[in-house]
Every structure is written in structure tokens, then in C-alpha cells.
Amino acid sequence: MKYVSTRGGSEELSFLEILLAGLAPDGGLYMPKSYPQISKETLDSWRKLSYADLAFEVLRLFSDDIPEEDLRQIVRKTYTSQVYCNGRADDDASQITPIHWLGEEARTQVGLLSLSNGPTLAFKDMAMQLLGNLFEYALAKEGRELNILGATSGDTGSAAEYAMRGKKGIRVFMLSPAGKMSAFQCAQMYSLQDPNIFNIAIQGVFDD
Known about the structure:
- With 208 residues, the chain is α/β, with parallel strands linked by helices.
- 34% of the residues lie in helices and 16% in strands.
- The strands form three sheets. It has a three-stranded parallel sheet. A two-stranded antiparallel sheet has the order 1-2.
- α5 (125-142) runs parallel beside α6 (155-164).
- It is globular, with a radius of gyration of 19 Å.
């Protein structure tokens, strides 16, 4: 799988090459040069997989420069009932994103997919927790370290911090607007004592 810039000005790169790169040199976003085609038979075979194993099957199509066993371990480490344990009392945490069905008849039911059972109760945990583990893996392979400078107006900052907390070779410096977040958001971010997390409250708003 090769990735190119949405602005058309970058060379073709692999998944690990773009993972830590951020924006492309021309300011565009990286996107796959082409998308995998999935057959109906493959989709049907995926229906019985756990969330982590399904995530592995999808991700390996886009990150074929990570050895499959390494990727499988990263995904299984990420999507666990211990990490995504903040659902309703009757949720099965092992499902990671349990579905709540509404309606009496099966053919007219509407399903609500729970995406906020992660550490910060934000849907962003679904991707950020994986990203933290992928960052740690890629940095270890290259013997590098990474400083992340972020800015948040609320839940995105805490999702990033909880994904990167305790990760080797990673430091997070997160700007947030002093006095302009909810008490819950402040408590989530400012209570973290991990030595690689630095919260910086500024006088101003997110755009500042």
C-alpha cells in the first residue's frame, strides 16, 4: 500500500513512512494511492470476528509494511475490555463497541453503536488509543523520540493524552484555554501525573 498527498505533490510512501510525518510536504493530507477491493465472501467471513480481529483484517490492508504478527499484537493490545470498559451496566465490554437495538421488530430496528466506552468517554478514543500504540511501535523500530505539540478546546486533548500517556519515547505538550473547558474536561486532563504529559493552559481560546 502506497500513500500520496491529496495535493498531488509528494512521493509515494508506505504506511510507516507517513505515520509519524503529519502533513505531506506540499501541505496536503496523505491518502492511499488506491483502495483495496473486498469481496462479499470476505465480508461474510469477517462477520464472526471479534472487534480486534476485524480491526486487524482491515488495517493490514492499509499497513502492509508492518509484519502481520506485530500488527495483530498491537491491535489486540489496543482493543480490550479493560480499555473500553466505560459502557452501560448491561454492556458486554468485550464487544468494544456494543450495539443497542431500538424497536420491536427485527426488520425495523435501529442500532445505536456505542463509540464512547474508552478512557475519556469520547469517540476519539477509538482511533487515538491505536495511534498511541502504533507511534510507540514505530519509534522503537527507528530508535527515535517524538514531541507532540497539540491544542484543544476540550475532549480531543484528553483523548490524545490518554492515548500517549506512559508511551516510551513520546512527550505531549497540550495547549488548552484556561477557564474555558468544562470541569469534567479539566479534571480529565489536569489530573494526569504521567511524566511525559505536559498541560499548558493559556489565556485565550482555541484559535489563539
